[in-house]
Design a protein that fits this description.
two-stranded antiparallel sheet; alpha+beta; 12-stranded antiparallel β-sheet
Amino acid sequence: MRSRVECLVLALLVGSCSTTSHKAPTTDAPAGLTAQLNYAEFLLSGDASTCNDRLTRAQEQIGSVDANPKTRVMYPDGWAAVADLEYRVHLAWAECAGAAHREEHLRTAVSAARHAAELYRDMFDYHSMVVLQFDASVALHDLGEKSAAIASLETTLGMDREFGFADDARENYELLLAWRGEPAGDAQVAALMQDFPKRQVEMKFQWGPRDAQITLESRRACLLDRQVVSSRASASFDGQIRANDNGGWSVSYARRLTNYEPGVWPIMQGSPPMAFPPVLIPEAGFEVSASGEFNVVTEPKAFAEQLAARTEELIRTSAQSDEHARDIVELAVEKTPADLSPGLLEAVTAENYQFETAMWIGATLDQGVWYEVSAPLSLPGMPRAVTQNSIQFAFTRMVPCSAEAMTQPTCVEIIMRAAPEQEALNRLLADYNNHADVVRVDSYTASITTRLVTDPATLLPFAHEKKVYWSASVGKGISLLQSEHVLATTRYGGWSEVTTRRP
């Protein structure tokens, strides 16, 4: 077992679960799996006389990726790209395997396309979702199930309208008319497109006094010596927005530690035992100006001390009696004050507010247009490290602010995708490694996908969900792979809403 000192340095560096394996490091965990899928896609093309061999090998590649524990960590609910390729393979088999097996493969293709569409929805990749819904329609039509195919294509067109995919809708209306046996010329398509929505929103900061009840959850998965180890953190507490003496707004929270589970101590799923760092989901209070500019985090030192003390208590309460487990308990307790330091609380609070509210003040967004900015973000798994990230975002659709009440779609859904800029990341790692005494970071990659729902008239956040995966190769043959899904719900002043804070 690695020494406590070495483990502590590793834990402080990457803030994650770690492995004692001394095998060669895996530096391309996401890229290696993607390469397998690319090879499977390549095998789909070629001479018809070789289709049986090519498709068999393609399915082997897809099955290998689907069964890989790295896939289960990065995409715990399933990888849409795998289901997408399953659809394409079975579509190819329908032509290759002969008439006796054509229907069987087409029906499997329909199921795979529908499954891929749901997985793309879960990853907020809505255009790919709509494409696979369309593909299911075509496969149903190839089966001769005309009514089901038309109904499926009508569903596709409903998605086109919801997400503003006008170019796709034109082609899909033309096909729908043809399947119905109706004239499908330009004039007929133009008539159907006449009321196609074209949406634009203006974002305004207009907070007011609010009371809230907040429930938050973070689910993490880590690959430990080819075993998937999981952890769940949660909290529920009250929140308030009130006018302050400076003419701005104060956000405060109460009962933050009453129902708090930091997610430090997972079930002993493998050997050796390990601990995740505590999740920073109990909120730190802060103040903003009347125009929405972030001012200051309130009481960071006092709250950090309370949070660390409560976390240490929970760690010891959850500890198991095994000798190795006791070592990990002491390690977790020892590093908790650093994991929950006032500086980290301030940084996370400011970053949350920036991407939840401040970034959108005064913005005008057209639906379906992807914008790009560059901004500094803390690195997943390395919360003390900050580097420039390329951030793409789009206003994707209008949705009800309250999921439970199913009100009119008056809120805006924004999807953001962030990844470290490679040159900035290389400089950061080089600077760290030049000063590293114990553990080097040989490679690192990360991806963050965020879904935000906010009221454009007030910029009160009603939904914020984040999906993250990151991988790193560090010194002495240690490879790390981890994913996180953050989700929370909030009840504002008597009606139910949804919001999430990043840990």
